[in-house]
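Write out the bound-state structure for (2S)-2-hydroxybutanedioic acid.
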Amino acid sequence: MKLLKTIAASVSITLASVTSVLAAPIEIKFSHVVAENTPKGKMATKFKELVEQRLSGKVVVKVFPNAQLFGDDKVLEAMLLGDVQLAAPALSKIKKYNKQVQVFDLPFLFDDMAAIDRFQQGPEGKKLLKSLEKRGLVGLGYLHNGFKQLSASSPLKTPADAKGKKFRIMASDVLVEQFRAVSANPVKKPFAEVFTLLQTKAIDGQENTWSNMYSKKFYEVQPYITESNHGVLDYVVLSSKEFWLSLPADIRPTVEKALQEAIVYGNQVALTKGQEDKQAIIASKRSQVVTLTPEERQQWVDAMKPVWKKFEAELGKDLIQAAISANQ
Ligand code: LMR
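---
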């Protein structure tokens, strides 16, 4: 009798643990720093929808926008520790994992989004993604935001207007040199701090895309935005190799397909959102959009382009050439 009871008890414990394993869905935490109403925010929401529709009960996706879970500087360390499973940091923030990604920060490098696409989808772009694997990260794809504009407390028409001003930048050494090239003072700060830094006038300006400036209300505390299109802000969607390869064989292809579809969707959003948000900023009348004449824009190009040469050795001449060639 005692033996029967013991067997019954152990069978029920085993069943209970099997049930709980079966019942526990895989959790994917997706951490990012921007608002939901941006190309990256919308891409993350789309990914969640697609995964939970197709893998209902097996995988749950929790999206944490606005640096709620991790900020710029911590997210990849957290990923390698298994505390977050997906992120899409700006390419300007991952030089610690491969310095060459800073090629995307070279000012006035790409003519348009199509050129960026060609470079990212070409052999060099693919190699850059793959290179992150030796640092324990899987590069799952590139995601667009768009071209950056310059905002400031006074109008910036020519490089001389930037002299002595303090600009917040992302953590990229190329961006440091870009602002030094116009005699300005760059300060590396996390995205989550930018609004307050601008509001309190701790800094004079910053560079960002229309969608980031609109969704984070930078235009309410920056009276001038120069439409410079001087550089690109794009992302790399990352997971840790350890987590990604641990996904069961019957789950991973579906998650991966959903992610690729979400990236395509995010890229479509990026194509239109920038112009919509620019119009919304103009309509708000809180910030004046400064349009450069071709001659004024050329002055910025002439001042900033020498930065390319400074990074030739670090980034590789061939890599820079491949990016230039993508303009066709
Ligand atoms: C920034 O820090 O300005 C951007 O990288 C934020 C983002 O993720 O778009």
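---
The radius of gyration is 23 Å.
Residues 252-284 form the longest helix (33 residues).
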